[in-house]
Design goal:
Elements (H helix, E strand, L loop, with lengths): L7 H29 L17 H14 L7 H16 L3 H5 L2 H17 L7 H25 L2 H8 L2 H14 L4 H16 L3 H5 L2 H10 L5 E4 L9 H5 L22 H5 L6 E4 L10 E2 L1 H21 L9 H9 L19
Antiparallel strand pairs: 1-2, 2-3
Bound molecules: iron/sulfur cluster (SF4) (3 copies).
The site of one iron/sulfur cluster has 14 residues, from α13.
Length: 346
Amino acid sequence: MKLSPVLPARRWAQIIMTIVIVAIGIQFTLWVSAHLAGRMPSVSRPPGAEGFLPIDGMMATRHLLYTGEIDPIHPAGLAIFLGICLMSVVVAKSFCSHLCPVGWLSEILGRLGVRMIGTTLTPPKWLDIPLRGIKFLLFGFFAWAVWFAMSPQAIEDFLLSPYARVVDAKMWRFFAPPSGLTVAVIGILVVGSIFVRDLWCRYLCPYGALVGVLGRFAFFKVGRDADICTDCRACTAVCPARLPVHRLGRVSSIECTGCQDCVVACQVDGCLAMRGPEIVGGWKRRLRPATVVAVAVGVWLVIVGGFRVTGHWHNNISEQEYNYRIQEMESPTYSHVGGMAPPEDG
Ligand code: SF4
Ligand code: SF4
Ligand code: SF4
């Protein structure tokens, strides 16, 4: 595997998103720490923290489709989830290569590994293929639970439960401080990602499986003009998803993240580009790489911005309510058993 120059617009999107997420993390830490200590926080709760609740987002999506109502507890989580899904069906799986901070970290580690050992390790096909299936099994389990195992009423009960009201604080508590096992698992994934590019993303991430499935139906995908292709294979050499781009017409793989590393690497003008489907004449209109980034990120911003301007970003839980709930969130009232949360006392 070789390293291609990275599209500046894509890198800037990753940098800005990571800065925003770090800022959200700091603000959320200050907020939840104050509540845990029984004080009123000096900062407000950042709704963007709900972006770390993708299963809740999936449930809220089903609830929205069934009832037409927006989840009142985590509306920002729903906005972020819908934005991620939509950007991934416009530009194939583009969330992974443009906005996901874990994806960026994985990319940095993978590039470091290529610098160190000159390549990235990939298990033989007989092992690689079943390993890649793990993330689909995980995603399939969550999708089955949300879309088939739970009734619409059970989804609503869950979204409004005491557990759901503090689930973000509970998640924070899980990682602060992280257990020895959590540190060990993260350490293995970090070190492993240096030598096996995208170890977590390629094999284990259920969110990646979801956006990959959606990306399969994406409007814009990488397309190769075979008439002018020189078969130099520069595209294949840099593809982080290990796809044989040089012999594909339109890249429809679930693993393609829309990163455009292959497009940047191709030296034949107009040969490789992000293109729309041929059926609507999209093949002729290739998108410039920076335009692709603008379209993908723009779709996400429109969804999130739409929720904000229509007043569906903040929930209406008061700081007083958060204060007592967070302090007693380890009690049985806030437990979560088998996908169901118990009703609130009184
Ligand atoms: S596979 Fe998962 S962790 Fe990796 S970039 Fe995609 S969403 Fe992020
Ligand atoms: S880099 Fe461009 S010219 Fe070379 S094989 Fe790939 S698509 Fe063809
Ligand atoms: S095919 Fe191109 S856009 Fe897709 S993952 Fe590979 S390098 Fe990125």
